[in-house]
Automatic annotation (TrEMBL):
Signal peptide: none annotated. Zn(2+) binds at H131, H135, H141. This is Endoribonuclease YbeY. NCBIfam families: rRNA maturation RNase YbeY. GO terms for cellular component: cytoplasm. One of its GO terms (biological process) is rRNA processing. PANTHER family: ENDORIBONUCLEASE YBEY, CHLOROPLASTIC. InterPro entries: MetalPrtase_cat_dom_sf_prd, YbeY, YbeY_CS. The keyword Metal-binding applies.
C-alpha cells in the first residue's frame, strides 16, 4: 500500500499520525478483504481548510470533520469484483496499485469531537479514517439502513484494533 500523507497544519497529537493512519488503513483493507494493493491520499488540514474544500466540492458552507473523495465506482458497496473492468482508469500505471481516493481530515475537528464525545484524539482520528475508508469502498449513510451497516463496520474494526472509547 502507498499512503501519500500530508499535514498542512501543525498536528498537536501525542501519537504518530502517519503511522497510525497506515495501521488503520491496512487493518480496514484486511477487514474488508480488499483484494488489491491500494494507493490512498490523506491530508490533514484545519477548519478553515476543510471549510473551503467542503464549500467548493459539496456546496456546504461550513467546516466538517472529514471528507472522502472515492476514485472508484461500485455497483454495490464493498463489492470489489468489477474493479478490474476499468483497469486503465482504476490502477496507477506506474505502480500497479489501485487508486482508492482521498481523505481530508480537520485536525481542529478531531480535537473538538474527542473532547465532546469524551474519548481520546487517537480514537477520534482512527474513527474518521475508518469512516472515510468505508466511503472509499462505496459505503454511505444516507438512509437508516446504510447508516446501520456502516456504523456496525466502524465499531467492529475499531473494537478489533482495540481503539475504543
Amino acid at each position: 500500500m502507498t499512503l501519500n500523507f500530508e499535514a498542512e497544519v501543525n498536528v498537536p497529537f501525542d501519537f504518530d499520525v502517519e503511522a497510525l493512519a497506515g495501521e488503520v488503513i491496512n487493518f480496514t483493507l484486511e477487514h474488508e478483504d480488499f483484494p488489491y494493493e491500494p494507493e490512498v491520499n490523506l491530508t490533514l488540514v484545519d477548519n478553515e481548510g476543510i471549510h473551503a474544500i467542503n464549500k467548493e466540492f459539496r456546496e456546504i458552507d461550513r467546516p466538517t470533520d472529514v471528507l472522502s473523495f472515492p476514485m472508484l465506482s461500485y455497483e454495490n458497496a464493498g463489492d470489489f469484483s468489477k474493479l478490474e473492468d476499468d483497469y486503465d482508469d482504476n490502477f496507477n500505471p506506474d505502480t500497479g496499485e489501485i487508486m482508492l481516493g482521498d481523505i481530508v481530515i480537520s485536525v481542529d475537528k478531531v480535537l473538538e469531537q474527542a473532547e465532546s464525545y469524551g474519548h481520546t484524539t487517537k480514537r477520534e482520528y482512527a474513527f474518521l479514517i475508518v469512516h472515510s475508508m468505508l466511503h472509499l469502498f462505496g459505503y454511505d449513510h444516507m438512509t437508516p439502513e446504510e447508516a446501520a451497516v456502516m456504523e456496525a463496520k466502524q465499531k467492529q474494526i475499531l473494537d478489533e484494533m482495540n481503539i475504543t472509547r
